[in-house]
């Protein structure tokens, strides 16, 4: 092999190695929360952040019922290594041995009713009956999730400039699948079945701020103060 051929061969190996690394270290923009709903079920609850590791918990109930019987926790991490770290940390909270599971994600542990697994930068916890089968379906969706940086979608909040005493003003959050809102200063924020409402605190100055945690349609969590 002459010198030019050797250089070409080495360059080919370097390019192939880079391409393989890119494939192995894919970052997903997120995963559709609507697509996670299993057949015959409906999403009835969203809790965020559900756990100290930042997961959002989705509760699903059989069609026509309100009590959730299946829960899927999701963390859209900034990288695959961060998703792995979140899974490792959660495993330490489980008492007893956890069995390794084959055919789900890049790594999975659990049993028929409780499964933890990662797929690229996505970390999932599935709890409920047939958790392993649900996890396989979720993993198939995750493997097809869009590739890219997981940048959370921005939101819009209609923040009232004035808060009359004794009046509850509805708060509208646009761009979020679900949100948790708290207020500081002269305002009190309450969650109702219809959404959040804002009220003036008796005897408090009018100035206030809102702290908002939200999840968008691809499961990415954002935080802001307004």
* Total number of distinct structural domains: 2
CATH topology of the largest domain: Protein Transport Mog1p, Chain A
Strand order of the largest sheet: 1-2-3-7-6-5-4
Biggest pleated-sheet summary: 7 strands, antiparallel
Helix fraction, binned, reads 10-25%
Q: Give average pLDDT, whole number.
A: 86
What is the total tally of β strands? 15
CATH architecture of the largest domain: 3-Layer(aba) Sandwich
The number of distinct helices, counting runs of at least 4 residues, comes to 3
What is the top-level CATH class of the largest domain? Alpha Beta
Secondary structure: elements and pairs:
Blueprint: H1 3-24, E1 41-47, E2 56-62, E3 70-76, H2 80-91, E4 100-101, E5 107-111, E6 114-119, E7 122-128, H3 131-143, E8 156-157, E9 169-170, E10 173-174, E11 178-185, E12 187-192, E13 195-200, E14 208-215, E15 221-225
Antiparallel strand pairs: 1-2, 2-3, 3-7, 4-5, 5-6, 6-7, 8-10, 9-13, 11-14, 12-13, 14-15
In words, what does this structure look like?
The strands form 4 sheets. This protein has a 7-stranded antiparallel sheet. Strands 9-13-12 form a 3-stranded antiparallel sheet, with no helix packed on it. It has helices spanning 3-24, 80-91, 131-143, and strands spanning 41-47, 56-62, 70-76, 100-101, 107-111, 114-119, 122-128, 156-157, 169-170, 173-174, 178-185, 187-192, 195-200, 208-215, 221-225. The chain has 2 domains: 41-143, 3-Layer(aba) Sandwich (Protein Transport Mog1p, Chain A), CATH 3.40.1000.20; 156-225. The chain has 3 helices and 15 strands. The protein starts with a helix and ends with a strand. A hairpin with a 2-residue loop joins strand 12 (187-192) and strand 13 (195-200). With 226 residues, it is of the alpha+beta class.
